[in-house]
Amino acid sequence: MSFIELYLILLKGTATAFAGLASLPVIQDALVTHRHILTAEQLNEAVVITRSTPGPVGLWVVSAGYFAAGVPGAIAGWLAMITPALLIIPTVHFAGERIEHPRVRSVLQTVVIASAGLLLAAAIPLGREALTDPATIIIAIAALVLLLTTKVEVAWVILGAAVIATAADAAGLVHHLT
User: Fold this and answer.
1) Residue 73: how many CB atoms within 10 A of its CB?
2) pLDDT tens for the chain, residues 1 to 178
3) Closest CA to 81 of 22, 26, 31, 7
4) Cα(109)–Cα(95) distance, rounded to whole angstroms?
5) Which residues of 29-66 are buried (b: 16+ CB within 10 A; e: fewer)?
6) Could you give the 3-state DSSP secondary structure of residue 166?
7) Which residue from 53, 80, 52 is spatially nearest to 65, judged by alpha carbons?
């Protein structure tokens, strides 16, 4: 796969998703399902790497690009990640002047709703890969409940989940897929 082709595939995901992980279904479809450039495990690992480090949620695209084509792929991912941000600046300026117009408000609401749907679509394959046994399911449910009902920082939930998962693994409660 050429650099430009990979960039355009990743750009399609980042430009149409409007949120970090919302681009996952688009990129998964292109690179995992149709072109078989990445495995589902590599794509999930790209997401985990990004969620485990500080920075923008959409940074996972850089890791996916790296898994697809090494350093040039990471550069393609980085360019695909920043291109929509650079293009949105004049768009926001234009919309900002017209924000009270009913059509502009309707378009913005539609983008938010579509992004929420894409995030849900991104969560389903990640859940299928990660929720492999009762321990991981309990950790996921507990994290969801904490995030929905408290103001605990996401980083603390991730750290707590990692500690609990490590302890569960040490106790032999986590089933590893190979």
Assistant:
1) 23
2) 899 999 999 999 888 776 667 788 888 889 998 999 999 889 888 888 877 777 777 788 999 999 999 999 999 999 998 898 888 778 777 767 677 778 877 877 887 787 777 777 777 877 777 788 888 889 999 999 999 999 998 889 989 998 998 998 888 877 655 4
3) 7
4) 13
5) ebbbeeeebbeeebbbbbbebbeeeeeeebbbbbbbbb
6) helix
7) 80
Break the chain into its structural domains and give their ranges: 3-128, 131-178
What is the three-class DSSP state of 172?
coil
- Contact (Cβ atoms closer than 8 angstroms) between residue 60 and residue 20: yes
* d(C-alpha 142, C-alpha 136), whole Å: 10
pTM here is 0.62
CA atoms of 162 and 148, how far apart (whole Å): 19
Rounded Cα–Cα distance for residues 28 and 120 (Å): 14
75/92 Cα distance (integer angstroms): 26
User: What gap in Å lies between CA 96 and CA 90, rounded to an integer?
Assistant: 10
